[in-house]
Protein: Glycerol-3-phosphate dehydrogenase
Organism: Chlorella sorokiniana
Amino acid sequence: MHASSLSITRPAAARLGARSRAPASVRAAAPLGGNNALPSLQRIERLDTATLHKYHDLDLAENELNTYCSTLPPEGQPERCWQAYSFLERKRDAAAAQEACEAAPGGGGTCADLEHLNTMAHELLMTGSMDDLVATFSTLARVEEMRAARSAAQAEEEEDVMERVFNTEEEEYLHSLFCSMDANGDGRLSMAEFRQSMAMLGDELDGSTVALIGDAMELEGFITEEQFRDIVEAEAINSKSEVAQLWRHHHLNPSKRRPVAVPRLSW
């Protein structure tokens, strides 16, 4: 990584804005030289005694990252540095949106996270290594991104599973409905069985209609379960029967699907 002299004397005013800053006596301290150097232990201890808000270590870490990232050449992996900086900035912005962070330390999950990050920033600043600061927070940023991607993938998978469950529910319902129509249990519906059953469900089909259905589907006097499914789906376009209504319920209201009791037919 590119070697750079860092100092707390170069605050990122654009980032910090109205945030609390160290006293002038601290900011006027002579900058340290060296590779990837952070303020010395003595200067950190002086900051601890300064009148700053409870997240001042994060302020300092963000300030140093902003300055350091701006000085890195392409070969110094500036994108990784900015990833670390953006992570801290994002966490602070999320916490700032919660009043609990100001009113009750540790009063919320986001606030507690921010306090933990502030402690981490303090410990990293104590090491005096800019490499450690960048490596730690850029890694946390990548972990957060991976978890978000995993959650999105899991949500998509769960949605697919629910769709498969809904399809299974439709299939189970139609199977039960077919079995209830199959009076003699031979796995087929005669045209008479089909016509009588549809009539009992509120959908009167005259003989010519049944004949047309038979001709269109090339039926040989009986209706298999698969053919029955096709008929119900086609019949659902205009019908007001219970079969049609249930079919439309499944197809047009997938979020409201629920098991439906199959009408029991008597012969």
